[in-house]
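Please check what follows.
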Amino acid sequence: MRLLIQRVSKASVTVEGATKSAIGYGLLVLMGITDSDTEYDVEYLSSKLVNLRIFDDTNGVMNLSAIDTDAEVLIISQFTLYAQTRKGNRPSYIYAAKPDIAVPLYESFCSAVSQLLGKEVKTGVFGADMKVELINDGPVTIWIDSDERSKKHSQL
């Protein structure tokens, strides 16, 4: 499971010309799901997302989380986060989960984040052609892949 997290001043998603969801200050989360993802990935990433300290404290240091700041959250499904571009110029999406796997995990993730925040999470429409608008604040953009939780990385 992959999340592309953007701290935003505001964000919205439009489907078929109508605004489906909009938030003020908070997080826009683009979410990709692959066939091997499970509820364990949902649990790990939902907790990681709401506790990620990427909001400024009174000293201007990124030291506060979405929970600390009562941030709003907009979660958009985006299968293209699993694009494979090694061969040729046309991306392959063979690693993106099909709807029968992806929809329940997407809904579970949105529910888990909502529960952890103690308030409604805004969403897009799974599988729809969506227009997403945002004002990235900072800019702050963070990439998290649940596969990374078990890998050890050497320091640069």
Remarks:
- The chain is about 25% helix and 35% strand.
- The CA atoms of residues 4 and 143 lie 5 Å apart.
- The chain has one domain: 2-148.
